Amino acid sequence: MFSVDAVIILDYNVVMIEMKVMGIALDTRTGSPIVVLHDLQNRKALPIWIGSAEASAIIRKIENITVTRPMTHDLIIDIVEKTGYSIDRIEINDVDKETYFAIIYLKNEQGEELEIDARPSDAIAVSIRVDAPIFVTANVLANGSVSCDSAKDEEEAQEFRNFIQSIKPSDFEKLMKDDKQSDQ
Q1: Cβ within 8 Å of residue 163, ≥6 positions away
Q2: Which pTM value belongs to this model?
Q3: DSSP string across 121-134
Q4: Taking burial as the number of CB atoms within 10 A of a residue's CB, which of 3, 88, 89, 107 is the most buried?
C-alpha cells in the first residue's frame, strides 16, 4: 500500500503518510482554488480548498517566480530562521466538517521542537519554500483522499477477495495456536 520511506509512525501510534504538492486546481463550481497533494507512489490525492492568496503563494514557488520584496511566507521563514529555528516538517493532522488543521514543526540546533498551529495552505506554502516534508495522518487521508490509480486499487481488492475466499477455519486454528505459543 505505502512504501516504508513514505510512512512514519509517531510515538502515540499515529500513522503519517508523506505527500508532495501535485499542483493547484480550480473548483469548477465555485472558482475556489484547491491545492492537491499526492502520496509518493501517486496512489492517493488529497484536495484541500484554499484561499486565493495562499494559492498564489504556492504557485509562485512551484513556478519559481521571484519577487523583489519578501512575501508573507518568505517573511515567516526569515523570522523563524533568525530566531535560531528551522522548519522541520508540517503535518496535516485533522479534518472537521471540511476544515483541515495543520501543525508546522520548528526545530533548533539543540533539538528543541516547537509546534505552531496553522492552516494547511499556509503550512504548505512555507514547507515548499524550504523543502520541508509534508505529512498527512492516515485518518485525514482516509476521509478526504481520492484514488489516483483505480487499476491498482482494483487489483489489490481482487487479491484481497481471493485471499478471503481461500481462508479455511483451520487457518484460524493454526493462527491461534501460533499466537498462544508466542505469548509464552
Answers
A1: none
A2: 0.74
A3: HHHHHHHHHHT--E
A4: 89
Contact 19, 133 (CB under 8 A): no
Quick one: CA dihedral 123, 125, 113, 92, positive or negative?
A: positive
Phi, psi of 158 (to 5 degrees): -65, -40
Q: Inform me whether the pLDDT recorded for 2 exceeds 50.
A: no
Grid cell listed for 145 = 483522499
Q: Which amino acid is at 12?
A: Y
| Residue 84, C-alpha cell as written in the block | 535560531
130-156 in b/e burial notation, b at 16+ Cβ within 10 A? Answer: eebbbbbbeebbeebbeebeeeeeeee
Tell me if residue 85 falls in helix, strand or coil.
Answer: strand
Cβ(96)–Cβ(102) under 8 Å? Answer: no
Cα–Cα distance measured from residue 179 to residue 138, given in angstroms and rounded to the nearest whole number = 28
Written as nine digits, the cell of 172 is 484460524
Span 39-62, pLDDT tens digits: 888 888 899 999 999 999 999 999
Return the SS3 of 105.
Answer: strand
pLDDT tens digits, one per residue of 85-136: 999 999 999 998 889 999 999 999 999 999 999 999 999 999 999 999 999 9
Residue 104's nearest CA partner among 93, 92, 122, 90 is 90
Q: What's the burial of 168, exposed, middle or buried (CB within 10 Å: 0-12/13-18/19+)? A: exposed
